[in-house]
C-alpha cells in the first residue's frame, strides 16, 4: 500500500473530531467579536410607526440588538418593558429623529401612555437632549441594516498612518473586505506589491479628513517605501488624492466604523532605553531593542540592536500598547531564548554586561503595564492565523506554547515550513476556527495522507445508493444527504467512515450501534474500532470489529445491511443507477420482508418507548394547552398530536407542523415550550433569557441565531430547521 499527501477538502469539525483536538474559544478573539456587532447601539433614538394608529409615529429607544433585529421601547414607558417589541430593520418603517418634522408627519405617543404626560413636546426635548440618534444612512439606502464591518465596501477611502512617521497620513482605498480584514492600496499607487492587509480596528486607520482636522501632515508613504516617490511626481500624488477625496465625499464612510477603535495610552519611554521585543521583521524570535526616538506622549521609535558596522537599521513606530514589547529579562524569567544582537562578540548574552558595555539603561517596569496579564491558557488548541511572511495567506495553526501574553503558533500546510511564529494574545492577525469558511476566504490547511489502492488492506470506493430501501432504523431523508461514495483507502478506515454516517442517519443512533455490534464472523480478519453517536444531547460509543482485507468488504457490507433490515445494496461496492437488482424501491415497509417475516415498523421516538418495541407507541401525557401539533410519530412530548407515517411519505410531509394557535400570539413561555419539545431542548434556556416571543421567533435567521446565541454552525442549523417549520406552518395556516 502506497500512501501520499493529497489536497483534499478540509473540514474543521471533522478534523477536530478525528484528532481529539480542541479549538480556541471564539470569545477569546475580541476583535472578531466586535466585528460581528450591529451598527446600532443600545440607547439610540429613532422614529417608528405607531402600532394600531395609522400614519402616526413616535420616538423609540433601542433596547438591544440581534443582527438586523432591534428590540424597541417607545419613549414614555420608562423602565416598563411590557410593550417592548422586536422589528426587522430591513422591513420595518424606521426613520431618524426629525424625519416626521421634515415630512409633515404626525408625531404622537401611543394610546396606552397618552395620558401619562400633559406636555409631550417638553418631554421629548428632555428625552432627546444629549442622546444619540440612529444615523439616517443605517435606516435607508444601500447601508441599511448592515453590521459595522459591512459598512466598509470596496472603493471606500480611509487615511492610514505612515509606518515610519506617526504624524504623517495618506489616503488608501479598500480593495477587499474579508470579515473586517482589509486589503488596502495607497491612493496614487496602483501596484499590488505595495498592498497592505489590516484589520479595520487597527489604530493606524482613520476616517478621511482626520489628519487635516488634527493638524497632521498628509504626505505620500515614506521610509522603506521612499522608492514610491520615484514612480510619480508629487503633483501626480496630489492629483490622485484630490480626485479620490472628491469621489469619497459624495458617499463618505460612516463614522460608526470607528466607534470601537481603542484609545491610545500615554507612554513613559525615553531615548536610549533598552527592552526586549518580538522581531518586527521575522516574528520567530525575541531580540534586544532600543528606544531611538520619542515623537510625543503617544508614539516612540524602536530600533533592533545591531552592532555590525554595515548594519541597516530596522525601525518600527510603537505606542504604549504595541504588541510584542517586553521588559529586560522577560525571556530569562519565562524560559525563552533571547536572540543575541548581530555583531555582539560574546557567545553568552547577559543583560547586565550588555547594559554596562553600551552605557544604557533598561526601561523600567512601569513602561509595561500589561505585560504580566495572561489572558490565555490554551496550549495545543487550534485557530487560524496570518502567515507573517505572506499577509494575504491564512493558515491552520496550533498553539505550541503560551508565555504571559505571547503565543507560539505552528502554521500548518505551508509548502516551506516556518519556525513557530510569535503573536500577542490580542493580535488582530489570529482568528477562531471556521473564520475563513464563514467569510469565504481560502485557508491553507494540513495535507491529508491518502492511501492508494494496490494492496489487500485497501478497498476501492464504496457507494451509498440513496434510492434503495433504508429499512426501519435509518432516516431516508438523512440518507439522501450523504455523499454518493466513500473511499478509496484502507478498508477499516473507509468502512468506519461509512458506518459512522449511517449511525448518524438513524432515527435512534444508540439502537443502530447495538445492532452493528451483532455483525461478526469468526472467519473474518478484523480490527476493533470505536464508533460514536450523539442523540438528544447524549453521546454513545461502541466497539465494533471491522474487516481489514478487501476480499471481505463486500460480505461485511451485506451482513450490515441484513442486520439493519435495509436493501442489500444500500451501501457497498455495487453502484445502483436507475433500478436496484433487489427491486427494493418498489416495495413499501409492510411488503418488504426479505429478512423478517413479521411486519417491520419504524422504531418509536417516544421518550418512554422501549428500544425493542417496534410498533407500540409511547403513551401520551395529559395535555395542558396545545399550541402546536406535529404530524409525526406519536411521542410523549406535551402539545403534540401525532400519527404513524408510512415509509413512502415524503420527508418534508412527515416533518410538517400543524399549529393550533397563531405563533404571532405566542408568549415567551409558549416559545420555550415549543423549543423544549424539539431536539433543540437544550437551547430553550436561551429563549427564556433573551425574552424571545412568537414575533421575535419568526424574525430569526441563521446569521442572527449564530451571532446572538453564540452557537456553532451545526446546532444553529438544527435550531433554524425547527424555526423554519414554525414559519412554514404560520404561512400556510395564518398568513391570510
UniProtKB/TrEMBL annotation:
Domain of life: Eukaryota
GO cellular component, one term: nucleus
Cellular localization per UniProt: Nucleus
Residue ranges of every copy of the SAM domain listed in the record: 663-729
GO molecular function (one): chromatin binding
Alphabetical UniProt keywords: Nucleus, Repeat, Repressor
Alphabetized Gene3D superfamilies for the sequence: 2.30.30.140, SLED domain, Transcription Factor, Ets-1
Occurrences of domain PNT (ranges): 647-730
SUPFAM superfamilies: SAM/Pointed domain, Tudor/PWWP/MBT
MBT repeat start and end residues: 10-110, 118-221, 235-341, 349-446
InterPro entries associated with the record: Mbt (IPR004092), PcG_chromatin_remod_factors (IPR050548), Pointed_dom (IPR003118), SAM (IPR001660), SAM/pointed_sf (IPR013761), Scm-like-4MBT1/2_SAM (IPR037604), SLED (IPR021987), SLED_sf (IPR038348)
UniProt xrefs under Pfam families: MBT, SAM_1, SLED
PANTHER family linked: POLYCOMB GROUP PROTEIN, SCM-LIKE WITH FOUR MBT DOMAINS PROTEIN 2
Protein name, as recorded: Scm-like with four MBT domains protein 2
Organism: Cyprinus carpio (Common carp)
Amino acid at each position: 500500500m502506497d500512501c501520499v499527501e493529497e489536497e483534499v477538502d478540509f473540514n474543521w469539525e471533522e478534523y477536530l473530531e478525528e484528532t481529539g483536538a480542541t479549538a480556541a474559544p471564539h470569545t477569546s478573539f475580541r476583535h472578531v467579536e466586535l466585528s460581528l456587532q450591529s451598527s446600532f447601539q443600545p440607547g439610540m433614538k429613532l422614529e417608528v410607526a405607531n402600532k394600531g394608529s395609522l400614519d402616526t409615529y413616535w420616538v423609540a429607544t433601542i433596547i438591544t440588538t440581534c443582527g438586523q433585529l432591534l428590540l424597541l421601547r417607545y419613549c414614555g414607558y420608562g423602565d416598563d418593558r411590557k410593550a417592548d417589541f422586536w422589528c426587522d430593520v430591513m422591513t420595518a418603517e424606521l426613520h431618524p429623529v426629525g424625519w416626521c418634522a421634515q415630512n409633515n408627519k404626525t408625531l404622537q405617543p401611543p394610546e396606552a401612555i397618552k395620558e401619562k404626560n400633559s406636555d409631550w413636546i417638553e418631554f421629548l426635548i428632555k428625552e432627546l437632549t444629549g442622546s444619540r440618534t440612529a444615523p439616517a444612512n443605517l435606516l435607508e439606502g444601500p447601508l441599511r441594516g448592515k453590521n459595522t464591518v459591512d459598512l466598509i465596501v470596496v472603493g471606500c477611502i480611509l487615511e492610514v498612518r505612515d509606518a515610519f512617521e506617526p504624524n504623517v497620513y495618506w489616503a488608501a482605498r479598500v480593495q477587499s473586505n474579508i470579515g473586517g480584514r482589509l486589503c488596502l492600496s495607497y491612493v496614487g499607487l496602483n501596484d499590488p506589491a505595495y498592498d497592505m492587509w489590516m484589520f479595520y480596528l487597527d489604530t493606524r486607520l482613520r476616517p478621511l479628513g482626520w489628519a487635516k482636522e488634527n493638524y497632521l501632515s498628509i504626505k505620500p508613504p515614506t521610509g522603506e517605501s521612499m522608492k514610491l516617490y520615484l514612480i510619480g511626481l508629487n503633483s501626480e500624488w496630489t492629483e490622485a488624492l484630490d480626485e479620490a477625496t472628491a469621489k469619497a465625499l459624495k458617499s463618505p464612510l460612516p463614522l460608526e466604523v470607528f466607534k470601537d477603535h481603542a484609545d491610545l495610552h500615554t507612554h513613559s519611554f525615553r531615548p536610549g532605553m533598552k527592552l526586549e521585543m518580538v522581531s518586527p521583521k521575522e516574528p520567530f524570535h525575541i531580540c534586544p531593542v532600543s528606544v531611538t526616538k520619542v515623537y510625543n506622549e503617544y508614539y516612540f521609535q524602536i530600533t533592533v540592536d545591531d552592532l555590525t558596522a554595515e548594519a541597516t537599521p530596522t525601525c518600527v513606530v510603537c505606542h504604549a500598547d504595541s504588541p510584542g514589547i517586553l521588559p529586560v529579562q522577560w525571556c530569562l524569567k519565562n524560559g525563552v531564548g533571547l536572540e543575541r544582537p548581530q555583531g555582539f562578540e560574546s557567545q553568552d548574552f547577559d543583560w547586565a554586561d550588555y547594559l554596562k558595555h553600551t552605557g544604557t539603561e533598561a526601561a523600567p517596569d512601569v513602561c509595561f503595564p500589561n505585560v504580566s496579564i495572561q489572558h490565555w491558557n490554551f496550549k495545543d488548541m487550534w485557530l487560524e492565523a496570518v502567515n507573517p511572511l505572506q499577509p494575504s495567506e491564512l493558515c491552520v495553526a496550533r498553539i505550541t506554547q503560551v508565555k504571559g501574553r505571547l503565543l507560539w503558533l505552528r502554521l500548518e500546510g505551508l509548502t516551506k515550513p516556518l519556525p513557530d511564529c510569535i503573536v500577542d494574545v490580542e493580535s488582530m492577525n489570529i482568528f477562531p476556527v471556521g473564520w475563513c469558511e464563514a467569510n469565504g476566504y481560502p485557508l491553507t490547511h494540513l495535507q491529508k495522507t491518502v492511501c492508494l489502492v494496490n494492496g489487500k488492506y485497501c478497498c476501492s470506493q464504496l457507494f451509498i445508493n440513496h434510492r434503495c430501501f433504508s429499512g426501519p432504523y435509518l432516516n431516508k431523508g438523512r440518507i439522501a444527504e450523504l455523499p454518493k461514495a466513500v473511499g478509496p483507502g484502507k478498508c477499516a478506515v473507509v468502512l468506519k467512515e461509512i458506518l459512522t454516517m449511517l449511525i448518524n442517519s438513524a432515527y435512534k443512533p444508540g439502537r443502530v450501534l447495538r445492532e452493528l455490534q451483532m455483525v461478526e464472523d469468526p472467519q473474518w480478519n478484523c480490527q476493533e474500532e470505536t464508533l460514536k453517536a450523539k442523540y438528544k444531547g447524549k453521546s454513545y460509543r461502541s466497539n465494533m470489529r471491522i474487516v481489514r482485507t478487501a476480499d471481505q468488504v463486500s460480505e461485511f457490507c451485506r451482513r450490515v445491511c441484513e442486520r439493519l433490515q435495509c436493501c442489500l445494496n444500500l451501501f457497498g461496492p455495487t453502484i445502483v443507477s436507475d433500478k436496484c437488482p433487489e427491486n427494493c424501491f418498489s416495495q413499501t415497509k409492510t411488503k418488504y420482508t426479505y429478512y423478517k417475516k413479521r411486519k417491520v415498523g419504524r422504531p418509536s421516538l417516544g421518550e418512554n418507548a422501549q428500544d425493542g418495541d417496534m410498533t407500540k407507541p409511547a403513551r401520551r401525557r395529559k395535555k395542558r394547552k396545545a399550541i402546536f401539533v406535529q404530524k409525526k410519530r406519536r411521542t410523549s412530548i406535551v402539545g403534540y398530536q401525532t400519527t404513524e407515517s408510512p415509509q413512502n411519505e415524503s420527508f418534508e410531509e412527515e416533518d410538517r407542523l400543524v399549529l393550533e394557535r397563531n405563533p404571532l400570539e405566542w408568549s415567551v413561555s409558549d416559545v420555550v415550550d415549543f423549543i423544549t419539545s424539539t431536539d433543540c431542548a437544550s437551547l430553550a434556556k436561551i429563549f427564556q433569557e433573551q425574552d424571545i416571543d412568537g414575533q421575535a421567533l419568526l424574525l430569526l435567521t441563521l446569521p442572527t441565531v449564530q451571532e446572538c446565541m453564540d452557537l456553532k454552525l451545526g446546532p444553529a442549523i438544527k435550531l433554524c430547521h425547527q424555526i423554519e417549520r414554525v414559519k412554514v406552518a404560520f404561512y400556510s395556516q395564518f398568513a391570510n
